[in-house]
Amino acid sequence: MTDDPYARLAAAAAAWEELGSRLSPQARDRLAEALSGLRPGGGASGAPRTADPEAAALTAARLLEAELPGEFPGESRFTAVRPAPADTVHLGFTATDLAVLVLDGHGMAGPVLGEVRDRLLAAPSLGDSEVLERGFDPYAPDLIRLRAVGGEVRLPTFQFAPGGAAAPVVRAVNALLGADSDPWGAADWWLSPNAWLDTVPARLIGTAEEHQLVQAARFLTEEE
């Protein structure tokens, strides 16, 4: 391990499932405050970003060093003399992934799930205010709500009919898929090629074949 604070944060992200449980609630709060400084506009809680992201990375790395002594052998101190690359990678994880895990409250991070997260967030989507402006409730439990990097919530556009309301078939399928508890899994089902349907499920919404969507979702849940 070098004296690169971003490397410490990336390594912590790779082992976060185990390390996170060892931090006290107070330490997690302090870590979240520091990590919010890595992001434009702050974190999910709206905390302001510091003027110096390198300083924020340094603060977060030192906090982990103090709270988890000996966890990263070979590290004795951190310096900020030379800015470290923010995309430093450890086992496919970066400091940004740690911010996702700590600030955004979901596990869509790392070399596999991080790519899935980025792909799903790249699909057309609406924010809460845009859905409200159309006269509909963006907080309905049968709608997919994805928390983007930085904390902003996005609702994939495919869920809404041209008039703005959520399509009934979407609500029915989302309920079957448990979109309220696993929005990423539900979004991935809708936006990925489906062998049973021989297409991407979202493409069938509003077509004569949309009745197959409920059948396919029910088949999936029965298999599980």
Mean pLDDT: 86
Radius of gyration: 20 Å
* Count of domain modules: 2
Order of H and E elements? HHHHHHEHEEHHH
Q: Based on Cα principal axes, name the global outline.
A: elongated
Please summarize the sheet with the most strands. 3 strands, antiparallel
Number of strands: 3
Give the fraction of residues assigned to helices: 40-55%
**Quaternary:** single chain
Structural class: mainly alpha
Region (Disordered): 31-51
Task: Give a quick precis of the structure.
With 224 residues, the chain is mainly alpha-helical. It contains ten helices and three strands; from the N terminus they run H-H-H-H-H-H-E-H-E-E-H-H-H. The protein folds into two domains: 5-105, no CATH class; 118-223, no CATH class.
Description:
The longest helix is centred in the first third of the chain and has 15 residues, at 53-67. A 3-stranded antiparallel sheet has the order 1-3-2. The protein is 45% helix and 4% strand. The protein has 224 residues and is mainly alpha-helical. The protein has 2 domains: 5-105, no CATH class; 118-223, no CATH class. The relative contact order is 0.11.
Topology:
Layout: H1 5-14, H2 16-19, H3 25-35, H4 53-67, H5 95-104, H6 110-121, E1 125-126, H7 128-133, E2 146-147, E3 153-156, H8 168-177, H9 183-191, H10 211-223
Antiparallel strand pairs: 1-3, 2-3
Region (Disordered): 31-51
List its traits.
single chain, 224 residues, mainly alpha, 2 domains, three-stranded antiparallel beta sheet, 10 helices, 3 strands, 45% helix, elongated
